[in-house]
Every structure is written in C-alpha cells, then in structure tokens.
Predict the structure.
Amino acid sequence: MTDNASKIWFITGASRGFGREWSIAALERGDKVAATARDTSSLDDLVEKFGDAILPIQLDVNDHDADFAAVAQAHEHFGRLDVVINNAGYGHFGFIEEISEAEARAQIETNLFGALWVTQAALPFLRDQSSGHVIQVSSIGGISAFPLVGIYHASKWALEGFSQALAQEVADFGIHVTLVEPGGFSTDWSGDSASHSEQNPAYEAFREKTMQGRASRNATPGDPQASAQAILEVVDADEPPLRVFFGTAPLGIAKADYEQRLATWQKWNHVSELAQGKG
C-alpha cells in the first residue's frame, strides 16, 4: 500500500454484505463515503458513529437518471471521487428453461445496467481529475458457470466484458478498473435478497443434484468482514489488478475451467482452421 491519503468512496448497495463492511473499513481509517441504499435508514447507525464522513444516498440502481444524480450529489458534496464501487446486485435462481422474461430483465437491469449507469456517471469526474478507481463487484460466476444461476452468470459475464474494455479505454486518463471476483461468502446474496423462478417438475432430480453441488462448493463460506482488509489493499495499490479473486476457492475453479477450455480449443483446432479455409 503506497497511497495513504484520505480517499472519497462511492459505494452502491451499502446497506449489507460487502458494501456495508467496505464502507465501515473506509470510514474507520479516516476516508469519506457516499453510501447508497434503497433504504437509507439501514445506514443510520453509521451516520451516528461517523457523522459527516458518510453521506447516505437513497438509490435504486435500476433508475438511470437517479444513478447520475447520486454520483453528481456525492461529487458536489465531497469535491472529488477516488473509488467508485458497483456492489449493488442480487442472485436469481432458476434453470434456464424456468426463467421468465421479467425475471431475466430484472436481473440484467440491476447487475449489469445499474453498474453501467453508475460507471458512466462517474467517468467525467474521474477524467477531469485524471485519477480514480472503478471497482466492479463481479463473482467467480463472472468467469465460470454453474447450473441454476444461468441468468446471474449472464449478468456478471457481461459486466466482466464491458469492464475489461473500459480498463483499456480509460487507462490514459489515469483511471484504474478492477473486477473483484468473490467465491462463496456469508452475505445475503442467496438469502432474502435473492429471487427464484417457479420450479419446473421436469428438473426435480437434477435440482437435487445441483443443490448438493452448491452445498459442497460453499461448505466454508468467507466472512465479508474479513474482506475489508483485502479491498483496502486493492484500492491503495499503485497498479491495482484488473481482476482479483476474493476467497480461496475461486482460483481452483478457474484453473480447472480454463484448462478445460484450452484443451477443447486445441482438440478442435482443425475445425477452426477449416473455417479459415485451411483444412
């Protein structure tokens, strides 16, 4: 960690989970935080403890205009923005055949477009000051995929794609982009904040098998509070990573997944050459 100057953070989804723990970590070390939540009363205890260092902002990230207004409010209030974290999101559970149009659109609106609007709102301010760090909370589900959460994966894979492009587009402005990719953590992601499709009986047997696999992968979930030190190290780095896993499980999943992809691409490379007219 090399930059210990006080930072101004803008964090969506600050009422619980990662957003709340990271807000507390920033505030406790003397930084200032614009913390958004659908219900700002969930932040009352932090306002009482940290006073003017925290600016609660009521926000539903699905509202494009409200996203731009919230970022502008934070910038006007604190005078600058150093760290913009798109944390708001939720998980939707349902096999692909089970997902309704409304459920699919709601998942993409929140997890993808919410992050896109906040990012777009922040970029002019970050460009003007020639610095800043955009942090997108993705998931191991942003680079791999498992049954039952396919539309969630779609939202996070899309987030990964635009963020990797963004990192190249804004580097010359002194802006960094990081995709944080957690494994299983004890957040409310699969609890009350999650949504579920109506179950199709045809998948009953596979559903049971899928749930057993999920239980095995998430047998020892991480502690969101412990992740606070990790996010501080990321934001304080001179050259932060484009991608970083949070938790010990994702690296093994990624290695197995990418080794399989490379092996398959190599095995079928003769077809790739055939498509190029070299067969």
Q: What stands out?
A: Strands lie at 8-11, 32-37, 54-58, 83-86, 92-93, 132-137, 175-182, 195-196, 243-246. The longest strand covers residues 175-182. The chain has two domains: 8-247, 252-279. The chain is about 50% helix and 15% strand.
